[in-house]
# Entry
Amino acid sequence: MTATLTAPAVAPPSAAGPRRRRRTLSPTLLAFVLVPLLVETLWVFWPALQGVYLSFTSWDGVSPAVMVGFGNYAELFSDPTFGRAFLDTVLWLVLFGGLSALGGLGMALLLLKDRRGVGFYRAALFTPVVFSLVATALIWQAIYQPDGLVNTILGALGLDSWQHSWLSDANTALYAVIVPALWRQIGYIMVLYLAGLKGIDPTLYEAATVDGASRWQQFTKITLPQLSSVNSVVLSVIIIDSLRSFDVVWALTRGGPYHSSELLSTYMYSTAFQSLRLGYASALAVVIFVLAFGVILTYLVRAFRDADA
Amino acid sequence: MTTARFSRRNFLAGLGAVGAATALGGCVTSTGSSAGGGSATGPVTVQSNLSAPSAKAAMQALIDAFNKKGGSQASLNTVASETFRTQLPTYLTSSNPPDVMTWYAGSVARSYADKGLLLDVSDVWNGATGYSDALKQLSTDSGKQIFVPTSYYFWGLFYRKSNFAKWGVQEPTSWADFLQVCETIKSKGVTPIGLGADNSTPWVASGWFDYLNIRINGANYHRELLAGKHSFADPQVHKVFDQWKTALPHFDPKGTALSFQDATTNLLQGRTGMMLIGTFLLDTTPKEDVDDIGFFRFPVVDPSVPLAEEAPTDGFFASSHTKRTQQTLDFLKYLTTVEAQEAYLKSSSGSSLPANPAAKDAGTALITKGKEMLNKAADLTQFFNRDSSDALQPTADAALIRFIQHPEQIDSILTDWQTAAKKVWNS
# Structure
């Protein structure tokens, strides 16, 4: 899906402009445009369109596909698991997205000033980003085990009644999965904000200090407005990452127990490759695509409008 | 506004592409009936999901032995079992498929045969001697054989003999005895029944459902239920769960948070008393502990129901698209021989029984006892996914794990299960 999402950015408005040239294009230039377009068509647009086509069929991967019109989409509305996965995805977006933005900003502010050892902390926070999410999940799986770190610590603190089978309890599974995802995402968002914060002109703060502005006023009146361009990047990164979150959930709970930590992405995968209902799974994929694409489109429109202004 | 023009142009181009896609869309779902590349010469390609190191080595040894005979040749390609499972439909429908594939006997193989994807291997069966009628029946679809079984194993309640002796309990035969044994083990401060049904191996919980259902409603009802001829919301199915409820307090409360490997460790270290599992448990048991492992038959619930047992059968089938029919049949014939099956068992962990009755098994007390149990059985079932389909298994996983955690919700669990199963049967 990543590739699909980046697709709109591929065709840059390079040739179009007020100065129209009559000169014919050089073959090299043409090749630079056509070859990537061909590759993109073959590996991105074509499979994506096949997916849309499949979403109108009923197909088990073996027999010929049968056209069912909008049957798969109609089924979505009466499917309680889809409802659950949709709500979980929204919850994921709010918790994972919101907390990683707040956490990332907080960490960036904390680690902005060059003090002794600050590089170490920045590196430490960024390290989880380097790990593959599946490896991250393996570490957290051990931590969440019934005899794992979390329960051992709770036991040592005398909180035995809080001990839990975190990943196999339907009430805690989704939240237990969000934590490792956050653990990784905060470092990433922090780096984005750090870059933004470094770009703010320090004289603004000097002037504010001279005017007697408090720390809080400096933060709300200077830092936040100055970060607005970074904020829109962070927002789109968060939304896209939320919608395509799959690996960490699949590795930790596979959407279970009994669909309690199901996201749209995991439900799509299990419908396609475990239940072999590829038509219905394609309809789910289309829903995810529309959601992601809608977000990107609004972002792009806004970004272009800002650039024109 | 250059951007606006561009997005409109993209949109129009996209619209055209959508039209083209619907016209050509058939490509993606076509079932590859046209003859592709692939030649009639070259070795028979064997696609195997036996990726455990000992099993993989045993397969390689088998292929080497076949190649040494100097006739047809074969080559092995081992794939991780999870990948294999998801890719199997693709293998079977491709125009240049692997010739021979490992898989399971029963409905799961028949469903592929019904779609015309499996090679008729009646020829192999005609040459094979001594195979039981039950195995032949299991490998038959609409009058012809489509599967070649090579080994099978059994399920039972496994325990440590030394622990049972220490606690002073005997193997129970009836359900009442079984609950009594659980009470005694509990009084010694040990969890009576272990379970390893976390998200990585949720299917082990199906063993309990299968056995309770064939003990209460019989093997025929069980198979019909899995084929969609009855509803999971039927009162008969309800009875199964009422029975299960009586044993549920003795289950390890962490059972749905542990993998079956962790649950095995708990059993071996005496933290749990017994566990319903297949003989593959021995594959992960340390050598020095194997002799201390015993098992007993799943207790009788209703004495009037004939005793059926779970005996999952493993083996091979071949693609109907193969270009090397004769060589493929040669290889499958070799797999049915005493020589091949003994060689395989010797190099693997020896926890299964050879399908050819003339071949010698591992001969341990446990294996001999299991073989006797199966020989006396009135009927044999395979396992939940093998008696239904791999697609139905996740619906059972969701329902059973929910039941183990929230037995009080059984009514809504069963109606939800039926709804989910119906979608699989109808698709």
The beta strands of chain A are 57-58, 66-67. The radius of gyration of chain A is 24 Å.
